[in-house]
Predict the 3D structure of the following.
Amino acid sequence: MENIRRRFSNLWETPHKQPPREAYQFYQELIQPDNIVGVIGPFNNFIDKPALMQACHCVSGGNGSVFVIDPQWGPQKEPIDESSEKQKKHFSEVAGLGDFSSNHLRQIQIAKSNGIKLTLPQWLGPDSAAQKIELPNDSLDVIVDHSVSVFLSGGRLNRDPIECMSTMNSCYREYNRVLKPGGILILQTDRSEYRLKNNPFIRSLLDVFLENNGFDIEEFRVTDAFRIPVSTDVYDNWEQREFPKPFDSDKFSAYSMFKRMVNIDGAYYLVLDKPWSQGPDMLICTKANES
């Protein structure tokens, strides 16, 4: 815990000190190029859930890899879009496609093919979920959970508290199992949206289940914004600068990326600051080293 506090002394925020910092700064500091990263349940596209793309950029300079893990599994879960066979036929170059929505992975491939530094993620398949990750013990350096586990537990929907507790506990127990000793869970949520601030009992559940499953917690307040560097050459040579007519989904994705490129202090970035589900409360949870 002391190492985390020292590493983020410049980012530490209290009501009487500096304002919240941007979420991407923590991702850049915590996810190293050689890390093995698991990202839980990204949404349908990079705009709504940018944490996956940020993680793919963080490992792009080394030998790291990124696994995509579906939030849920089971007979009640239906394919989000096309059948597996259609996806494989159309997106054969993207690693690990199946019943998981392929749109998000395709967009990352488009960004990479246009020169943005990214590592292509690998989908773990329909048999993996936040509560049952198909990876060996102690195999991940970092897990990214951007507004997923608390949502799954029903904290926002006032579900049965017993079911809520069971879901949260099983998620964090599984996260601990697959993380290496000293590994980090980047957990973002919105305590106010999920009534975790106003209800001391529900608020304590989040912290208690994390601590009971072997995590030390440091909490920060952040602006839920993500920033992917774009070189000047990539920006200058970006082909899709206009809305595609006739409409083409790949060209529209490239156009959407260009519209979100911003020059900040002389450098270009793909700026993603309005995700579908906000996570201003960032919990950096470190798995205790085995004694």
Remarks:
- The mean pLDDT is 81.
